[in-house]
């Protein structure tokens, strides 16, 4: 079984595993931390995540320049690229520590309006630990990027699964002993360090990764900067779109509203992983197609459509199921005080479905060096998101902020980017959407039965949710398998799982 199939299947295995763990771990964490402390943690984590922008988009440029260096200069060129990126990210890490230090020293000024003195002191500690974590992650990202470039997805996904399991195993005893959100971020930092060390050792001992220092190519650096600039703009916009709501709520509503939004946003992040689990695996292949094919568009359209179909089937299973039993699930998961997170999660999940089934388009744009337009679109989206979310957040709290984000996503991703893919990138979007829509009739019967069952049954607690979800998933899967999938998708489903089990058993 090749590394791509193993990577995709293990990614979905990790998604399922993390979801199951969350069913048990998150409610306990929410109750042990309390709404105030969890809201403080969500607010600080969202705010500090903005420091990831200091990579200036160079992390996403690695794959393009790795592929080119390997084709032109072989292993010597790759060693030079590795050395340059590692040096650059060491400098960025140091800059992050300086900027983060200033933020930590002024945390009382940043959040003084809505946080109590005790919450501000907790926020200061959380911020300091998270700053260190982000700073260290920059140079270590070179090792994970190299593993991806070598398409060793099996190792990456196994390490991620181990980390997923270890996090609650280590955290729960600390929370039960009363260490709170500070222990939460310290455990995160420790597990990140172990993961980074594992990646480093794998690169050195298994992949013979080399780095060449002392011959810094400033002309190549300028080319990297030009390529990365618009990726950097995209990163800014993504940060605005996904963190502006918690920042607005923290300022205008306080930690309680932020905590409720954070729970809904957490489910939305799980939804995102269903799609991103696939797209990252195909990044090296996309760059090779663009670099070696005279007319790459037919192959790219075919790959774009095949992957999009798989993503669509999986996302619709989760989305329709959540529509039917999301509210009782949310009450069982977080408590009655978090029931508004159901609406917040839906407002974030529904509009993001279109870009999620088109995630490969981002990598295709970058491989073709045609990602500039997306940056312009996302700037407009971010401006619209902020303009809409502030008044909606003031009047309707977290639901209003989520609605503002949803409107921006529907216009930017749903309409404008699809037009650009078809008219400029070279992807045949008519073929894509015809193929996607051909799956929809297979989903009608399970959706109708699910809606009737959800309206007639009194679904409460985890037991009620599971008793509904398992038969619904089985009905959905059977209907899509026989009426929606093509022959290659059925063969992939039947053959891929068996081969993966054999690989793991070796």
Summary?
This protein has 506 residues and is mostly helical. Helices cover 86% and strands 0% of the residues.
Overview of the structural elements:
- The protein has two domains: 1-216, no CATH class; 228-506, no CATH class.
- Helices cover 86% and strands 0% of the residues.
- The chain has helices at 3-48, 58-105, 107-111, 117-149, 153-176, 180-205, 218-252, 255-279, 283-292, 297-334, 341-356, 360-367, 372-425, 429-437, 441-456, 461-483, 487-505.
- Helix 10 (297-334) runs antiparallel to helix 11 (341-356) and helix 10 (297-334) packs across helix 14 (429-437).
- The longest helix is centred in the last third of the chain and has 54 residues, at 372-425.
- The two termini are 12 Å apart.
Please give a handful of descriptors for the protein shown.
globular; mainly alpha; single chain; disordered C terminus
What's the tally of helices?
17
Helical proportion, percent range: over 70%
The whole-angstrom Rg is: 23 Å
Portion of residues in beta strands equals under 5%
From the N-terminal CA to the C-terminal CA, the straight-line distance is 12 Å
- Which ranges are low-confidence, i.e. pLDDT below 50, for 5 or more consecutive residues? 500-506
Could you state the order of secondary-structure elements as H and E?
Answer: HHHHHHHHHHHHHHHHH
The tally of strands reads 0
Which word captures the global form? globular
User: What class do helices, strands and sheet pairing give?
Assistant: mainly alpha
- Kindly give the count of domains: 2
The description of the largest β-sheet is: none
Q: How would you state the average pLDDT, rounded? A: 82
């Amino acid at each position: 079984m090749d590394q791509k199939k193993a990577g995709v299947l293990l990614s979905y295995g990790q998604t399922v595993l993390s979801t199951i763990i969350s069913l048990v771990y998150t409610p306990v964490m929410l109750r042990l931390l309390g709404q105030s402390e969890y809201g403080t943690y969500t607010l600080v984590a969202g705010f500090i995540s903005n420091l990831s922008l200091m990579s200036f988009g160079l992390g996403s440029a690695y794959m393009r320049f790795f592929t080119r260096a390997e084709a032109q200069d072989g292993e010597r060129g790759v060693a030079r690229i590795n050395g340059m990126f590692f040096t650059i990210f060491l400098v960025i890490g140091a800059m992050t520590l300086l900027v983060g230090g200033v933020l930590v020293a002024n945390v009382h000024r940043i959040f003084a309006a809505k946080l109590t003195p005790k919450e501000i002191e907790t926020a200061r500690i959380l911020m300091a630990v998270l700053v260190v974590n982000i700073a260290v992650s920059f140079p270590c990202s070179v090792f994970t990027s190299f593993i991806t470039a070598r398409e060793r997805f099996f190792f990456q996904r196994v390490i991620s699964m181990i980390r997923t399991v270890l996090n609650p195993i280590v955290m729960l005893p600390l929370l039960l002993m009363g260490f709170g959100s500070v222990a939460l971020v310290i455990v995160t930092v420790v597990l990140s360090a172990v993961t980074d060390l594992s990646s480093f050792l794998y690169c050195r001992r298994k992949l013979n990764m080399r780095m060449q220092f002392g011959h810094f190519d400033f002309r190549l650096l300028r080319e990297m900067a030009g390529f990365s600039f618009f990726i950097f703009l995209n990163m800014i916009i993504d940060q605005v779109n996904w963190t502006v709501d918690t920042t607005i709520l923290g300022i205008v509503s306080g930690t309680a509203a932020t905590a409720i939004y954070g729970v809904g946003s957490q489910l939305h992040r799980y939804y995102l992983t269903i799609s991103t689990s696939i797209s990252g695996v195909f990044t090296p292949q996309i760059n090779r197609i663009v670099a070696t094919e005279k007319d790459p568009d037919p192959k790219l359209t075919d790959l774009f459509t095949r992957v999009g179909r798989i993503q669509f089937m999986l996302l619709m299973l989760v989305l329709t199921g959540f529509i039917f039993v999301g509210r009782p699930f949310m009450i069982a998961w977080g408590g009655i005080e978090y029931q508004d997170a159901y609406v917040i999660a839906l407002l974030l999940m529904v509009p993001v479905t279109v870009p999620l089934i088109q995630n490969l388009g981002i990598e295709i744009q970058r491989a073709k060096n045609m990602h500039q337009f997306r940056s312009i679109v996302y700037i407009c989206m971010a401006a619209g998101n902020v303009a809409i979310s502030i008044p909606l957040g003031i009047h309707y709290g977290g639901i209003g902020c989520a609605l503002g984000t949803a409107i921006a996503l529907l216009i930017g991703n749903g309409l404008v980017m699809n037009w650009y893919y078809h008219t400029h990138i070279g992807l045949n979007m008519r073929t894509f959407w015809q193929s996607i829509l051909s799956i929809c009739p297979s989903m009608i019967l399970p959706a109708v039965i699910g809606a009737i069952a959800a309206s007639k049954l009194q679904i409460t607690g985890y037991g009620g949710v599971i008793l509904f979800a398992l038969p619904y998933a089985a009905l959905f899967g059977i209907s899509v398998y026989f009426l929606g999938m093509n022959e290659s998708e059925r063969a992939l489903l039947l053959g891929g799982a068996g081969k993966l089990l054999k690989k793991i058993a070796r």
